[in-house]
């Protein structure tokens, strides 16, 4: 393809995208295909000779779009939103146009420096303390592909930090560069005694990071009374039990805005407990809810002050509710050396005079992989186009939708809200009340209700015009099956939310009739 052919195909692609978005409200949100639908239509081998580009481009509509679940559909209420905006799509295109893996500053100075700037814009917008800002010279942030990558990176940093501390305690001296080299004996003696903690509500990223390090993950039970948030005393109890067995706590994952219910862990309590365990690192996963710190009125309920005081690292995904096309996960640390001392492996071919002089950041030393995407350009375009006020309006809209829906569900005789709603997430279940007694305080038969709600979920799941996901809330008291309705989509209006709720009510009535 030459430049003029690219120009033509590029315009056609933009037309294709515009048509897609013009029609997105009319397309069923869920892909109506069966497993293998695409595999069966594609040849087993790549073509021997190049094909006409027009034909390839047409096949995107013909073969690919039918198998797309439309996350940008106004009727997408599953998981959490994965916002995308036109501003960001253009940024992504431009980033592809200068495709480069940006691992060292010298690989593309703009790539590194823009990331330094926009991550700090984000940190300031969210109210993260100066310790997390790159301009502090000690802390700083990096853009990862996912909250899972951030959590794993935090785990590697935490493990190395704990082993350095144990080395120091064993009498190992720092080298000429001021750094502690962890001796093999310390790794062998302590490396497999390290334990990761989170709660039963921690996203699976916690257990996965532990698995990847070959270490155990303790999912500490939470209680309904505490609205599913992890408490300091339970963390202490779990740690003490392990310490008695000779194990070493090295990492706690706390969550601001859990996936199932939006619960906010008691960060201050956990932080105070961890002061007694100096090998332990606190990572706060605010993958979904963290962007809401942009709204000052929500900072207290989301425990921002506690995060600023106690967390060693923090992550939030702008690619969820933050207007930024996938992927863009902000990962900030209070001490960048926690990352570089764990991840800086520099063979001669990666050295540069700027890095040797210590005047630049080489982001490869802040992450597991070497090459990296030019993600900062997306966030730069978003934050400049929307401004902080536009970003805030977008968040407020999602919250307002949830608030209005809450009022509707609260009036319902057949549904109940399961946990105090947080931000733009509503968690509910079918729970018919006695129509003659609006206060209806009958004992809850959870097994029966769980069954009813599983049936409801099956009915909703078999529809293509709406997409909601289920969850099971595990707690010390009991397990509750319920349904989540996650708002905050860029293209969703309150009319769409109302329509979705009408469908939920309709399917709920069918379940109750069948149950009679
Ligand atoms: N953490 C929380 C609280 C989440 O809700 C999610 C996804 O919904 C994740 C982490 C996973 O994010 P990622 O896909 O970026 O790893």
Automatic annotation (TrEMBL):
| Residues with N6-(pyridoxal phosphate)lysine modification | 320
Work out whether the entry's keyword set contains Lyase.
Answer: yes
Q: Which GO terms describe its biological process?
A: amino acid metabolic process; carboxylic acid metabolic process
Identify the Pfam families for this entry: Pyridoxal_deC
The answer to whether keyword Lyase applies is yes
From the UniProt record, which GO molecular function terms apply? Answer: carboxy-lyase activity; pyridoxal phosphate binding
This protein's GO cellular component annotations are: cytoplasm
What UniProt keywords are attached to this protein's entry? Decarboxylase, Lyase, Pyridoxal phosphate
Say which domain of life the source belongs to.
Eukaryota
Q: Which cofactor does it need?
A: pyridoxal 5'-phosphate
Would you identify the family this protein belongs to, as annotated?
Belongs to the group II decarboxylase family.
Name of the protein this chain belongs to = Aromatic-L-amino-acid decarboxylase
Q: Which organism is it from?
A: Kwoniella europaea PYCC6329
